[in-house]
Amino acid sequence: MPAYRPPRISASEITPREIYMSRRHFMGAAAAAGLAMTGVGEAFAAPLTTTPGAYKLDEKLTPKEAVTTYNNFYEFGVNKEDPAANSGDFKPTPWSVKIDGMVGKPMEIGLEDLLKMPLEDRTYRMRCVEGWSMAIPWVGFSLSALLDKVEPLGSAKYVSFETVVRPEEMPGQKGFFQALPWPYIEGLRLDEARHPLTILAVGLYGETLPNANGAPIRLVVPWKYGFKSIKSIVRISLVDKQPQTTWKNSNAREYGFYSNVNPAVDHPRWSQATEQRIGEGGFFGSNRRPTLPFNGYAEQVASLYDGMDLKANY
Amino acid sequence: MVSIPVLPRRYHKASVWALYVIGLCPAVWDFYLAYSGALGFNPVKEFEHLLGTWALRFIIATLAITPIRDLFGINWMRYRRALGLIAFYYVLMHVAVYVSLDLRFDFGAVWSDIVKRWYITIGMACLLLLIPLAVTSNNWSIRKLSGTWNKLHKLIYLIAIGGVIHYILSVKSVTLVPSTYIALIVLLVAYRVVRRPILDWKRGKTKMAQATR
Fold this sequence. Notes:
The complex is a heterodimer.
Chain A: H1 17-38, E1 51-52, H2 64-69, H3 82-86, E2 96-101, E3 107-110, H4 111-114, E4 120-127, E5 132-142, H5 143-150, E6 158-163, E7 185-189, H6 190-193, E8 199-204, E9 207-208, E10 218-220, E11 233-239, H7 246-250, E12 274-277, E13 288-290, H8 298-301
Parallel strand pairs in A: 1-4, 2-11, 5-12
Antiparallel strand pairs in A: 2-3, 4-5, 5-8, 6-7, 6-11, 8-9, 8-10, 12-13
Chain B: H1 12-35, H2 43-72, H3 80-102, H4 107-116, H5 118-135, H6 139-145, H7 147-153, H8 155-170, H9 176-212
C-alpha cells in the first residue's frame, strides 16, 4: 500500500472552469515553448500539431472528461476511475521505445523523434470487451510508417508489444493481489500491424496523452477490443511466432489472440451483441446500441481474415 | 470477554426499526449519486454493482450474528431478521436495476444471460432461494414451521456461497476486494462446521472452572 494516497476531491471543490482554462492556456503556451526549445514532450497536456487524417467518424465524440477518467489501465488499479486518480506520479518523459527482433535495423527511438512522425487526427470508435464504447479523437501516426524505419525481415510474421513496468509510479504493479502479471504484453499479426487503420497514438483531443490513457505512446487498433490497444509502450519486437498476450494467458477461454469486435461471438460471461456508449444518455436514458462487426470497420479489415473461422479464432 | 454497554430492553424494538432505516440509506444515497451524475460515466453499471455489493455485505452481517454471540458473548440476535431482509431487498434492487435500467426490459437478453452465463445463472438461483427465506421470516412462520424453519433457513449458507461466486465470476481479475469477500464468507460458513466442538470446549471450560472453584 502506498504510504499516502491523495484524498478524492469532489467535482464541486475543483477550480472553476474559467480559472483552470486560463491556467491551461498559460501552461499550453509554456509547453509549446518548452517543446520548441528542447523538442521533448511535457508531462502535462501539451498541444500537438496535426493534419486531418484519412479516416473520419460521423458520430458524436465522447466527452473528453469521460475519455480521460473512465479507463481500464490495471497498472493503476482495477476500477474505472483508478487510472485518472492514481497516475499522478507517472512520468511519461523522458521516454524511448526499443524496436528489436527480426528487423534489419533495430533501434531505440526517443519520444522526441516519435513526435516528429507525421501526426494525424484519427477519430475512431473504441469498443471495450466489457460491452461499452466511446468515439475518441486520437492523434497518432501509422504504425506501418514506424515499422518501415526498422526494415522488418521477411521471416517476421508477428509484432509483439510491451508496456512499461514501474511499480514505484504505477500502484497496480505493487503489493499483494496484483490484477495481472507484468509487463502487460500484446501482439498483432504483421499484416494487422501494417494495416492503415492501425496507429500509435501520442495524443487525444489535440493534446498529448494523459497518463490514464497510456502516455506517452500507445497502440490503437480500432476493430479489436480495447485491451489489444496496449498502453505506455516501451518495446516493439518483430517475431516469427504468434506472441503471448496478457489476457489470453490469464484466461484463454475468454480472450483470444485476435479479439476482433464481433457481435456474433459472445464473450462467455457477457453478450457482445450490444454496447453502452459512455457519456451519453445519463442514468435513466442509457442507450444500448448494436455492436457492429469489426466495430464498424469491416469494409477496411474483413479481407484480412478471409477464409478464417472467426468463431474459432476469437 | 468483550463487554459493551447493554441496550435497555425498551429500546430494542426501536433499534431494529432504526436498522432498517440505516440499512437502506446506502441505496438512497447511491441512487442520488447515480442520478446526479456523481457515479461517473457509466452510472447504471456502477449503481447496479453497488447494490450487489451491499447485498453481499448484509449477507455477511447476517452470518456474523451467531459467531459474535458464541465467541464474544454479544447477543445481537434481534437484528438478524432485519439484516437478512435488508440483504434480500438489496438483491431485489440489484436485479431490478439490471433488468430495467441496464437491459431496458429486454427479457430475451435476460433469459439468454440466465441460460448462457454461469454467474447470472447462479445469481438468479440465489434470488429464487432467498424468496422462501424472506416469506417465512415472520414470527408466525417461525412458530408454525418450528424445526423445519431452522432447516429451511440453513439455505442462507448456500446463498452466501452462491452470492460470492456470482461476484467473483463477474470480475475480470480477483484482486484484494473480491478476495476479502471470499475470505469472509468462507470463514463464516466454515465456522458452522466447527461450531459444535468450539461450544462444547467452551462449556467444558466453564464447568471445570465451576468444579475447581
